[in-house]
Here is the input.
Amino acid sequence: MKRITSFFSTEASVTKKAKTISEEIKTSATDPETCVDECSDNNDWPSCWTVEQKTEFCSKNEWLWFQDKKLGCTVCKNVGSLSVEAKMGMKISTEWSNGEITCYGEDRKKQLTSLRKKIFDHKESAGHQAALKIKKEAEKDTLGNAVLKFLKRDKLVTEKVFRTAYKVAKANQSFNNFEMEVDLQELNGVDMGCILHSTNACINIVNHISIEMRKKMAKEIVRCKSKISLMIDESTTLSQKSTLIVYIRSCVEEGTGMSEPINLFLD
Ligand SMILES: [Zn+2]
Here is the structure.
């Protein structure tokens, strides 16, 4: 029985060896089929590894890559080149991202252990895990999605700013109050963006809103064919400038929901 097992084990080792050799031949012939992933397309893996060990490490850690008999990490390399990691408060190992990992030790066994330990340590390191997360997010969130998200956020922020400006005008507040209103909302945790916060912005926004409202109202009056009355008044301002004011009085119930006739300052 013992003989049989030993016979089989020797045979197994022989076939293993044969496989190794055939694989070696294949890789040296640079058959494109042997390039399972990007790390196996060159012969630069650490000298202490056999082809089999290399394949095993590569299949277990698909982020491995080689360069001049040194190891590197493709994920850390790609994420590190974006230089976002500093902003997110994480540290990506430069040795791994630049492919500068070498083995140490006098004999092959020690070299193997050192590499195995280094790979394991890097796999578990916070920097590598964070890089993996970023890569995953990036794959999920394509550029198109990211742009759409930004546009949507911009619209939401502008909406809030416009609403604030409208409130200032509606409550007959001074335009100077606008900045304070924005500051208050920001203090309360509302995302108000970073533009259109000035008094001038408020004036422009209120003018824009009034023009749009007037257009809509005029359209509605024409559409409803309701009766209108005009009130024209001339007056002089404090600076002795004479002005002519045209008021329009009409009832536009549909669309606006106003049952009472309204006085519009038209021009
Ligand atoms: Zn990594």
User: Anything to note?
Assistant: The radius of gyration is 37 Å.
